[in-house]
Each structure stands twice: as structure tokens, then as C-alpha cells.
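Glycerophosphodiester phosphodiesterase
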Amino acid sequence: MNKTTFLISTLLTIYTVPSFAQNTTQSVEKTQLPASASKIVTVQEIATQVSMPPTIIQKIATPSNAQTSANQVYFHLDKNLNLIAKNNEVFQKLEEYLDQKQRRTIPVLKVDDIATIEALAKLSKSRDISDITLLSNNEEILQTSHQLIPMTRTALDLRAETSWGNTPQDLQKIVQKTNQSFARIVVIPNQLLNKNHVSFLQKLLITVWADASNTSTHPAKDAASVLTTGVNGILTAHSDIFITTLKQFPKNTLLRKPLVIAHRGVPTLQDENTLESAAYALGVGADIIENDIYLSKDNHLVVMHDETVDRTTHGHGKIEEMSLAQIKQLTTQNKNRKIPTLAEYFSLIKPVKNVVLMVELKSANPNLVPALKAEVEKYNFADHLVVTSFRREQTNRVKSNLAGVSTGILVGAMPNTGKADQNAYQIMQETQKYASTYNPAYRSDLVSLMQTTKHRGISYWPWALDDQTFKKLYIAGTYGITTNSAQLYAKYIVGIKTAPAVNVKVGQKFYINAELQTQDGHSIKSKANQYIVLGASPNYVQSPQKDTLTFKSKGQAYVLAGYQYHIDQQNSYTIFTTPIMVNIQ
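C-alpha cells:
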């Protein structure tokens, strides 16, 4: 087979959905929904041009100030199912709140005891309570919730963990505790709230919320500081400030960088699922490397997509019927590469900071997950690992054997009921059942579904898409995008750094020097070409393109410096710094 023929063959088979996955999806679509399935709340959205902005959760201080423009509302829930405001007054019964026909907010409910979970379980027998979020700092409470009311989503509250430091061990502890609680959402301690930590947790498939209720002399600056960390949700007593700030950003602003997932490495340039392909993906800056594993006849984990070696190697036969020695004799058809073990992948990726390995469990072999657990423990690799599968029984085995590791459910076809709210409802149900992310094949309504379900802590990691679709999903703020061609996105601008403070003269048109970072880690000296002035400030004028500022009087201002990057003539996005202090003299 020549190189061109091999490449075409690879591309034709690269996103094939297994027959068992197709059948599973069809059976899900036929499931009868409860009567309340079409009653999931239509959340009031914020009029912002930010791509996939964070969900905003208003803390209700008193029953009299319960009106809000936020997406969600935060109460304490007692064992009598009363909603308690911040001042400890009873707002109303949970059932009364849920029955409000004009309601357009989702309740986030702090739960302190198992008695409250038991009361909710009793209520769930007479009504659907899946479209609420239960928040607790107690893992046992959340585990009990998953057992008694598994369709109700949960969030782990770690705000009180003020002693945790900025170490990889503490960040990994967050991932482990969240997964062991069967939660997808975590509220992180304030001292860990920065862009790098948030991104690390998101790469490990965790939905990150922050508490931003503290106030200062410049609340707009504080709001922007939280927004630019890229968190998925924000609890605040001052949602109006966050909403006002969100409205200032230009079209296609990315507060959170979409993650580039290298599907089997870079199979358009290197033989798929080889160490060389994975190394190439690392070189072009992929955030996550994806591969597929089977268990050999003599119980070694090996990397291969198909159940046979026929398509990708010079050999023939089922890989699970071969010994490791036999597999190591095989070479790939195009470049004569060796078939790697999973341990070899671990050795390649572990030294690389901030890169995650996404392992797909291809086989139905019940011994696959215990073998994976042993390998992960041997190489201390849990802080680099997430696991996906079309096979739900394997996902359950991961939950039992590797409870601290995040999982994603692969989906051949999303629900297609003809009604957007029912499609969203089914996605909510499946992700909650398996406490996992949603990893579907691309469909044209994906972005609108992401917008609807982001308030429910659901993140999407789509696959089966071409370059134009990748660009569309990237500027839409998708969580992570799987691609066969990670090299095409190596030069995307993904970071901007400036001095924390600058001095300017009154009446002087100014710009801010910036250092831009590309996806593959290179730095470029440039200038910011977008500016946002935050809150109260001295008088200023701004060019129509928002690329320069001129202050008209002395004082101090806080500014976000941004960079608009043009992918091509049709597609662009803008990223921003944290707030910069501008001293006008």
C-alpha cells in the first residue's frame, strides 16, 4: 500500500463508530421520558458576546432580594426542604420554587446532612428533581445522593480548604475528591483561583466553579480577575457586576481556551497510535493525547484502535489473541513503526508538564480496567490520565477501580427527539448517571446544546469533524476538540502577557506591549489590539476599533488588554489579560 492510499484508508476509518455504540445510542433514544422531561427550566441568558461564558450563580441574601438576572440562584436547603437565604430566613419551600411557571433560574442548594438527601429522595418519587444542583463539602453526603437520587447532579464544595497550597498534589486531590464524590462540578478554594490551576483541572475533565463574593474598592476589576481565570461558573453576591462586565467583551471572546485533543496522535502525518505520533502531537502543542487500548493474551496493555491488527500493520489477527512478544514483532504499514505498550506512553508523557493522556477503553474484556489500575499505580500516572469509552460497563468499572480518575462517555449519535429541551434532558440524564463528560460525534446543533447544558456542569468533547468545523467549535468556546490534525492549530494565539501596571500621560494615545503565546509554546512580541476599561475611571476616548485609548484626566484606571487573532478571513477570536493598573499622570 502506498502512502496516499494508506492515508485515505486511515481517514475513512478514523472515526468509525463501533456497532455496539450505535446500538446503545439507538436504545437510549427510544427511552420514554417522564412527563416532566420537557419542563427543564429555560435559563435566562446574559446578553454577552463572550463564547460559552461561565454560568453566574447569585447568592440570595434575603427573601426580599430574590429577583436576579443571574442564571442560577444559591440557597441553603434544610431537611424540611426549605430554601434558606443567606440571612437564615426561610425563602419558601423547594416544591413551591420549582412550581413557579415563570421561573428561569436553576437552584444551587447547599446541603449539610444526609437527612436532607433522604427527604429529597422521598420527593423524587413524586416529581422529577433532576434539574437542581446539590452542593456539599461532605463527600459522604454526595455519595449518598448519587445512590438515592442518582439523576440529581451534585457539586463538591472545597471553599473551606484554605490550607491547600499551589502544589500538583493538592490539585490532584481536588480531582480525586470530586470524582470519588460522583460530582462533575467542584467549587475550588479561593487561593487556588488562577488561570493555570483552573486549566489543569479542566484538562482532567473537571467543571470548575469559583466563589467571588468578596468585595473591594474596585468591584469591576475583581469581577474581571475572576472571569479571566476561565472558570465554568461563579457564585457571587453581586451578579450584577459580573453581568455588566461580561457585556463589555467583544464578539468571540474566549475567557477559557478550548483544549486541542490529538486523536491517536497526529494520524494525518504519522502512523496512528504510535509513540512517534504521540511525540509529534506533543511537539505541536496538543493539550491532550488520545489513544486506544486492549489487553494482550498475556495481560499487557497495548495501544491499538481496531480489534484486529489488519488495517494498521503488516500482520493479521485479533490483538487480544496475541502475546506481547508477537505484538512487538509487528510494524505499521506506512512508516514501519512498532506497536507501543501503554507503559511506553506513560513514560513519554509523564515528564511533560500540563499534558493529559486520554485513554479510550476499546475492549469489553472485564480484566482491562483492573490492568489499567495496576499500570496507573505502578507509574504514578493518575495526575495525567482521563478515561473514555463507548462501553458503559467499562465506565462503571473505572468508577469502581479508579474512583479518582475522570471519565467521559463516548456517544455515536446525540439524542434526536425533535425537541431541544428533551435532547438536553437526555444528555443531562446520561452524564449524571455515569458522572462523566459528554464526548459526542459532531452535530450541527452542538453549540446550542452546550449553551443549554453548561449551566448543569456538563462539558463537551466532540469528535468526527473537519478543519472548518474545528474552527467553528473553537471560536464557540468548546471545552475540548478532538482532531486528526493538531498541527493545523499549533500557531493559534492562546495566551497574552503584559506588565501588571503601566504609566501614561494625560492626552497621550497609548498601547500596551504584549507577549503572545502560541499553542505550541512559542512566544511572539507584539502589542495588544483590544482594550476594555473597567468600572469607574478617569475620562477617556477609545478608537472605533477599540485598539487604542486616550485618557483625558489624571487618576488611576484598570484595563483589560486583549489580542484579536484572525484564524482566517472568516474566523477570529479575542483573548484578554487579567486587569492591568494604568496610572495617568
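The first strand starts at residue 55 and ends at 59.
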